[in-house]
């Protein structure tokens, strides 16, 4: 996991593991939606999630193009965009895939304003 808002495309024509910006026709809209979420999250907006083992990983404005971060061939986000015209972003909310129950109130506080800002864009 990480703390970042990722947007399509997650797959790229070259299928390189990382570093390929795979721009969709609606790239600016996706960036707008991802920033709407990330800019209200106290950790995500810094672009420095500081996850154990990935301390040097950074995301400008707390967002990333999926394929630029890592290539995912056949992912649901891209499928839904291409075949159903769904504008989805992927939200990585924690370095820990399964945070302990004791951390959930803090996670709620970190994400509440982001969720409301994102919903307002709909």
UniProtKB/TrEMBL annotation:
GO terms for molecular function: metallocarboxypeptidase activity; zinc ion binding. Keywords: Carboxypeptidase, Hydrolase, Protease. It comes from the Eukaryota. It holds the Pfam family Peptidase_M14. The active site is at 92 (proton donor/acceptor). GO terms for biological process: peptide metabolic process; protein processing. Belongs to the peptidase M14 family. This is CBPD Carboxypeptidase. It comes from Motacilla alba (White wagtail).
């Amino acid at each position: 996991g990480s703390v970042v808002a990722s947007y399509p495309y997650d797959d790229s024509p070259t299928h390189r593991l990382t570093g390929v910006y795979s721009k969709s026709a609606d790239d600016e809209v996706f960036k707008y939606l991802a920033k709407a979420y990330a800019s209200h999250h106290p950790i995500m907006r810094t672009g420095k999630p500081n996850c154990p083992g990935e301390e040097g990983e950074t995301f400008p404005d707390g967002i990333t193009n999926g394929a630029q971060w890592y290539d995912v061939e056949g992912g649901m986000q891209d499928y839904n965009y291409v075949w159903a015209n769904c504008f989805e972003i992927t939200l990585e909310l924690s370095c820990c895939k399964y945070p302990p129950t004791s951390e959930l109130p803090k996670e709620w506080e970190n994400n509440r304003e982001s969720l409301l800002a994102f919903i307002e864009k709909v």
